[in-house]
Each structure stands twice: as C-alpha cells, then as structure tokens.
Amino acid sequence: MTATLTLHQYAQSANCYKIWLTAAHLGIALDRREYDILKGETRTPEFLANVNSNGRIPVLQVGDRFLPESNAIITYLAHGSRLIPTDRFDHADMLHWMFFEQYHVEPNLGTVRFWRRFVGEGALTEFQRAQIPAKLAAGEAALALMDEHLAGRDWFVGQGMTLADIALYAYTHVGEDGGFAVRSHPNVAAWLARVAAEPGHVGMND
Amino acid sequence: MTATLTLHQYAQSANCYKIWLTAAHLGIALDRREYDILKGETRTPEFLANVNSNGRIPVLQVGDRFLPESNAIITYLAHGSRLIPTDRFDHADMLHWMFFEQYHVEPNLGTVRFWRRFVGEGALTEFQRAQIPAKLAAGEAALALMDEHLAGRDWFVGQGMTLADIALYAYTHVGEDGGFAVRSHPNVAAWLARVAAEPGHVGMND
Fold first, then answer.
1. Test the B interface: residue of A94, A95, A148 with most B CBs within 10 Å
2. Fewest CB within a 10 Å sphere: which of A29, A99, B14, B112?
3. What is the ipTM of this complex?
4. Same CATH fold, A88-197 and A5-77?
C-alpha cells in the first residue's frame, strides 16, 4: 500500500474502532484525524464538500480518494488477508453478518448507546425517546440470534476470526453502555472474550 | 455452479428483486419459493429453524447452506463477474454504496413503501405512523445525496454498472410507491432509465 491512509474519525464511535482494530491485526499504519460529532464538526460545509457529503464518520482517505462506511473500509484494509475467507460461500456469509450488523446491531445497540452515554437522556428529543423501547427490543433480538448462532461455534464464519467478528464485536462489546444485557448471553460473552484474546487485539481506548 | 440455487422470497420485496435482476444479467438459473410475509409465513417455527432464524427473506439456498441478506446474496451470485470491480478501491467503494443502501435507502424508501402500499396506512400502529415524517426526510436526503453523486457520472462506481447500481435501483425505482419524489431528482431519474436500458434487464413484475 503506497498511498497515505488517513482515517477521519470520532474516537468514541465503535464504527471507527472497527477500523483501527482491523489495522492493528494487519499491521497497517493509519493517520487519524479527529472530529467532535457532538459539535457538528462532520456537518460543516468543508467536511461535506471535501470528506463525505453524507456528513458522517468514519471515512478512510486513500491518497486523494475518500471511502465512507465502516464495513467497506475494513474490507478495503483487509483485502487479501486472513480476515477475509477465500471460499466463495464463506466470503458471502461474512458479508451477510456485516450487513446484519449495520441493520440490526448498529442502529439499536449503537444508537441507544450514543443517545444515553454521549447525548444524554435529558437532551434527547421526544421522538428519540419514543424510539428507545423498540430499539432495546430489536437489539435484544439481535443478541439472541447471535447467541444462538454461536452455540457450538467459535467464530461467526468458518474456523477463524474474520471481518464479521470484528464488525459485530465493535458495538456488541460496549452494548452495556446503552443498557443491553449483552453478557447475559453466554455464547456471546464467550465470543467477546475470544475476540479480545486474539493476538494483536487492541481495546477501544488503547 | 453445481448446487441448485433456491431463492426463498416474497415477490413484492425489492430486496428479492435485486437478486433475480442480478441473476438475469449473469444468466444464472434460480428456483424461487414464495412466502407471504403479510401472513407471517417467514416467522413460522419451520422457517426460523430451517431457513433463517432472523425470520426474513430473501434467503439464497445453495445446496444445504442458507445465505440471508440481499446484498450478500448478490455478491455471491456475481462472484468473478463484470458486476464486481476488480480494482481494490472500486471494489470497496461498491460495498460503500451497498451499505449506504441498506442504512439510508431501504429503511426509508423501502419501509414507507411497505407500510403504505402493502400494510395500508389504516393498519399501521401509532408508533409506525409516528416514524413516517422522519423516514420521508431521511429518504429524501438519501436521494439528494445520490443525485449529487451522479452529477456527471453514469454509474455509482467506475465506468459501468456494478452491484452498487443494482442494489440502489431496487428500492429507488419504486420509491414513488412510498410517496418519495424520486424522479424530481434529474440525475437519479436519468440513472434509473440507464439501468433499465441495460441489455439483460428485467423489471420487477416481468
């Protein structure tokens, strides 16, 4: 990889954490540029024009090209590595869990964590508050499905850690921040410990 | 491809349409098995145990293995084809738009269409009805972003149609069903016509 890699990020976002966790496992150097999303720093005209017209982090800058979406970014970084299965079905199954993560985990575990821990319940709109019960239920259903899948398995796909595990680990391992009883799911709890014990692992605040 | 491919589907789901559109472009034969999601046919104990514990369609059955998530399925089908860029950045950028689609398009254009056209406004819960204004605004924002990206470009990634176009086409081309003014975005309207004019294209009800 010849171009400089710059991650436009907010350090408390688990979508961003996925990326430096992947980079750590693969020994890839990343420059990081921090934005405070609570101060609207990703919604400025400059950010929208130059980094991401969607006003969101993370974005990986590869030379003069910009790549949004956390799970696309980790796929870019892990190209040709052990973190992506070479078997055609397993590769697609890895993507299945990454799409599941963005549809069923991040909007529930991630959003409720953000609202409760970073915005604060008192600062939520009435509409946001009204969504919490449904998001708690949907997140709990996602955890139950993950727990069932992990019964008798060490990893989401195949016989070793893949990007599916890294993507799902990010918001799941801090789900308690949003009030989710993550570790009451025994297979999920064991899998979280397994991911954290992998050589090369780094924590979110390391 | 040696195993029989069976698509477990609901024909009015644009997530399912993506799959037979991809298969049509690639000349891949699919068996289809229909479930009426309005009658709960994907929530039966049999479906949950044997097809998808997430209770959702589409699921592609490849021999005795089951693959959920529409965008994972089309990636499986299009493996090694012209619909997936070989360039490392472009490949990741295609995934970027496919994750964008599942996060910003399907939950807005797709969900409001489903509620209004298939469930019916009168049958919605108060909680569902309360979400419509936010989903209309978020879907409109997604369309505006797509329109801006398509200015001066024919396709979402690179110089030809990829899975990013197929994934985004699915719910966008029927967005009017949910009340979205899709074709008031001129670049989106031109791109929709371009996708439909590709050799091998099939419509949702063909």
1. A95
2. A29
3. 0.97
4. no
Considering only the beta carbons, identify the residue of A67, A130, A131 that sits closest to B92. Answer: A67
CB within 8 Å: A92 and B75: yes
Q: What residues does each domain of chain B span?
A: 5-77, 88-196
Give CA–CA dist B82/A135, Å, rounded.
39
Q: Which residues of B touch A (CB under 8 A)?
A: 53-54, 62, 65, 67-73, 75-76, 79, 88-89, 91-93, 95-96, 98-100, 102-104, 107, 127, 130-131, 134, 145, 148-149
The CATH code of the domain at A5-77 is 3.40.30.10
CATH architecture of B88-196: Up-down Bundle (1.20)
Q: Which two tokens stand for residue A46?
A: 């400059």
Under 8 Å CB-to-CB from B34, ≥6 apart: which residues?
A: B9, B10, B11
Assigned CATH topology for domain A88-197? Glutathione S-transferase Yfyf (Class Pi); Chain A, domain 2 (1.20.1050)
User: What would the pLDDT profile of A128-182 be if each residue is shown by its tens digit?
Assistant: 999 999 999 999 999 999 999 999 999 999 999 999 999 999 999 999 999 999 9
Backbone angles phi, psi at A90, to 5 degrees: -60, -35
Residue pair B84/B75 in contact by the 8 Å Cβ criterion: yes
Look up the pTM and report it: 0.97
Q: Who among B72, B96, B145 is closest to A72 (CB)?
A: B96
